[in-house]
Specification:
0% strand; mainly alpha; single chain; 8 helices; globular; 190 residues
């Protein structure tokens, strides 16, 4: 298995680590690990809620989709904070790799789900903005591996910092746009 595929598989597995952290072995983990596990447990729950509510209550579905966008923004801010903490304190790049890759996978899966939901609701502006972010992820993946390893972090930390700033900026823009779109949709549907 290639190293990129292995990193992707590890990142997906770490998103499922919330099960022992929250359910079976709560006493063995720190408060920070429990909070991260809550976020990763909440994301699939919101996917199901948004999808099921779409067929009955479009407005409520859009509100929950907005919550997903806020979670994506929070994850991007955490990503930015972890990168800056690494730059300032020169911590272990292997630990940073294990922290960043699940965040990247989570934000990309949130974006894929919002694109799917935008297709269901025929929300073309949100669909276009979702594809812009996926296009950016594709652009990044042509320049360096999208999922980071310790060597890439060590060598390209300035590029990773710029990437984190772009992700936070675009995520904030998308959150503001989502609020405006939600209000406009509520006005026209009610």
């Amino acid at each position: 298995m290639s190293s990129t595929a292995q990193r992707f598989q590890d990142a997906l597995k770490s998103q499922l680590d919330w099960i022992p952290i929250l359910v079976t072995q709560r006493d063995r983990y720190t408060k920070k690990e429990k909070q991260r596990a809550l976020i990763y447990a909440f994301i699939p729950f919101l996917y199901v809620v948004v999808f099921l509510l779409h067929f009955k209550f479009t407005i409520v579905s859009l509100i929950f989709l907005f919550l997903l966008q806020i979670i994506s923004m929070i994850l991007n801010v955490v990503y930015f904070g972890l990168v800056n903490e690494y730059i300032n304190e020169k911590k272990d790049p292997i630990k940073l790799e294990k922290d960043l890759n699940p965040i990247l996978v989570a934000t990309i899966t949130i974006r894929l789900f919002t694109i799917f939901h935008s297709l269901l609701t025929l929300s073309y502006p949100l669909l276009l903005l979702g594809f812009v972010e996926l296009g950016y992820n594709y652009y990044v993946s042509t320049r360096r591996p999208i999922l980071l390893d310790a060597t890439t972090i060590w060598k390209d930390i300035n590029k990773i910092q710029l990437d984190s700033q772009i992700r936070v900026g675009y995520s904030v823009f998308l959150s503001l746009f989502s609020v405006i779109y939600l209000v406009i949709t509520m006005v026209f549907l009610l």
